[in-house]
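job 3f2a | input accepted
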Amino acid sequence: MSEKKRSRQTVKRNRSKEVDSTTLVRLVVLLATALVSVCVAMYFTGNRMVFYVAAGIAVALLIWAYTVIRKTGKAVSGFYRSVIKRLSMPNSDIYNQFRLPVVLLQGNNVIWYNSLFRSLVLQGNDMVGPLPDEIMSQSERSALRMYEKVDVEINDRKFTVYSSGYQDKNTTTTVLYFVDVTDLKNIEREYFETRPVVAIFSIDSYDELTKDMADSDQAKFKGAIDREIELFTEKLQGVTKQLKNHRYISLLDERGLSLLKENKIAVLDRVRNLTFDGGIKATLSIGIGRGEDSYKACEASALQALEMSQGRGGDQAAIKTDDTYEFFGGVSSTGVEKRTKVRTRVVASALKELIRGSDRIFIMGHRFGDIDSLGASYALWNCIHALEKEAYIVLDEKTHLAQSLIQKIKADAGNAVIITENEALELITRQSLLIICDTHRRDFVESPKLYDQAHTTVVIDHHRKNTDYIDNSVIFYHEPHASSTCEMVAELLQYIDATVVGKSQADALLAGIMLDTRNFVLRTGVRTFEASAFLRSRGADPVAVKKLFADSFQVYRERALLVSSAEFYQNHAIALAKPGVSVSRVAASQAADELLNIENVDASFVMFAAGDGVNISARSLGKINVQIIMEALGGGGHHTMAATQIPKTTMEQAKQKLLHILKQMPGKEE
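job 3f2a | predicted structure (670 res):
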């Protein structure tokens, strides 16, 4: 007879005995109670003989009942103790009746497992000794000890393992229960892989590219791009439809998005490599929305991502998940200049109305301001002054890099034009207007406190859009294809009132354009030269502008030392300031420009100590996007001009971080 049968029969016999004993005891107690009642009656009626006999029988019955009850209690408690003991025995058949795989451990050694564990987990094999890593790795064991459960995958099956234990004398035994959740996990994976994703494709500067094309050429141009987009999205099992001449929408799921990312969104390269008559090159901007509950919500996120992609210069994809962005492409894009000035005219009109409706106007640039930010601020100040409104330029003279222009402004317009942050905070009111020039990042403005106090803000900037942009401005005038903020302001002032630009302001604006274009070498377009021609007509003097760039002998010496210390990695020049040698930001930026004059150098990086960290000034000739590199190190900037500050690091550590990023760039090898 099996142990299982014997166990069941024992339980039945004990239960039968328990029922019989209980019934008999109840009858005896009732009989004893009746005899006691008779005794009482006989006592009071005077029949003493009957009283003594009945009392003796009642006492005997009660003694017998007490004995039976005590014996029955011992039998029952003994039965339950035996069951508990059997449950605590590893070789017991109790665990074999479990509908879950179970394994018992002492320390890390396997002392017993049931038949389900052998068939489902071990797949019919046997196991002795320590629990192998194939069943549960060290990290999974640590998680199990911490949370008393952990997910593991064994032979393509997924289990959730639960842990419990018991103490037997001085030995601790751990019991692991394996719950097969393969089907649930597959359903969960299928759910997440089929979540909605919306991608919106847009041909960059479509109107400008096709403006002078014949209809047949436009059809070829459009057809070639259509074909690339359709072929690409077909592989993703998505549905793509055309919205406008230059815009498409694609409905995907997370599975398709994973393929998209694995291919590095190759459609960007395929479209960029297309060749059309006249040497025209097309690029795409892609906005992708995901992580939402519906396609409608994903479409709204995709539109925001597309705006971010275009704001960074186009030729790239932006994936928006909640409030975060992930970028692909944009490594060598320069974009196509927009020739239309309709938006400029609209912004100029709106800005003029805002100025007239404000009591005071404050203008500020970015931290460690340069000639571009200050030149644009000075021209706007003069325009506001001509409109008979109170205006101030807010900056920190101690950290500003355009000291010669500051002195020129004070000489031409007086000392009251430039004020400090504290002075501005005392003057600002709810009706005041704040204009931010040459930056759109909230953490990079000259005075974050002033920005927080301002109720109405205008942003004018040309840098490629960053994720931490100022999103509460009344006017966000952002043109990543413009050469400089001074170019944008020169265009705005022509629509507000061209006569407000005097010789002094024209010099400052032209200096800003020359700084950011490196004397009309980089990022210059038709509108750049149109703005420069306008400034020349307003009295801008190239000789006076040249003087604004004059340096002291100390700056010249620092620049020369940096250039002479340059090292080369592939087509990059990297210069490190020597330990203990003080280097100004002006010298570092100029040295970065100077290094581009060396043969076969496409990008330059100048590193110098600043406090307990390291600053890096980066420049390129357009072939390499230094903004992408600096963003990877926590900074930002423009396609050909960027910088970053790495806190709490040494010069060598910063250099190794930079080299690591350069090695990861497309086309680079270890």
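job 3f2a | DSSP finds 23 helices and 24 strands in the chain.
job 3f2a | closed
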